[in-house]
Amino acid sequence: MALLEVNDLKLNLDGTEVLRGANLDVETGAVHALVGPNGAGKTTLAYCIMGLNGYRPQDGDIVFDGERINDLPVEARAQKGLSLAWQEPARYEGLSVRSFLGAGAVDGSEERLARALEKVALDPEDYLDRSVDDSLSGGERKRIELASIEVMEPKLMITDEPDSGIDVEALQHIFELLEDVREQGTTVLLVTHSREVLDHADSATLICHGMNVDEGPAERIQKYFEEECIPCPVHNPELKEEH
């Protein structure tokens, strides 16, 4: 059963057609990857799903857990169990890591917050009382943000380029965290153009120029990285009738 269904989504931003009828199905309990080159519309699609300002589609449907959510504000979508980890995490001057993690936690106990930090390879004693500001690197803030979503225990975690700004050792902890959140019942959508990240998905959707090119088992979508370009309606107009 699909937890998230995106049907024929179209979005025009400042006169540019960014999404041209994008479709996406994410099955409950899966780790699904949304794959494509830079500029394909991956992040835009994620923002539409989350309902961010300026990203309300002109056409199409977004259905989450059986409910059409096109008209819901971002806060209402979050309350229903949608979450998004940004490619470039925000800074919060004066807000401690402890407060940041505890704000949306199902269990805000010291032990639970510490365990979440350990899952992303950060020592709680070193980080709980630090501020979420420029004193932290982008990679540290990304890991803290992922830990904050893990303690929320959402129905769907969307992660935008989870490997961005992360070193190789920390990335392995991120992959372990993704498995942990799946085990606790969270479905995961990975927004990526990384083959290594795709390796950790069950299934995938490939988009290019805001439209679907292929979808299916992650192993099949790997050919995008091997062949660099899969025939699609954008680069091969004669295929439009088939799609």
State the main characteristics:
4-stranded antiparallel β-sheet; disordered C terminus; 243 residues; globular; alpha/beta; 10 helices; 33% helix; 6-stranded mixed β-sheet
Secondary structure elements and pairings:
Blueprint: E1 2-13, E2 16-27, E3 31-35, H1 42-50, E4 59-64, E5 67-68, H2 74-79, E6 82-85, E7 92-96, H3 97-102, H4 110-119, H5 124-127, E8 131-132, H6 138-152, E9 156-160, H7 168-183, E10 187-192, H8 195-198, E11 203-208, E12 211-217, H9 218-221, H10 223-227
Parallel strand pairs: 3-10, 3-11, 6-9, 9-10
Antiparallel strand pairs: 1-2, 1-4, 4-5, 7-8, 11-12
Helix pairs in contact: 4-6, 6-7
How far apart, in Å, are the first and last alpha carbons? 24 Å
Helix count equals 10
Note the overall shape. Answer: globular
SSE arrangement, N to C: EEEHEEHEEHHHEHEHEHEEHH
Strand content: 25-35%
From the alpha-carbon coordinates, what is the Rg to the nearest angstrom? 18 Å
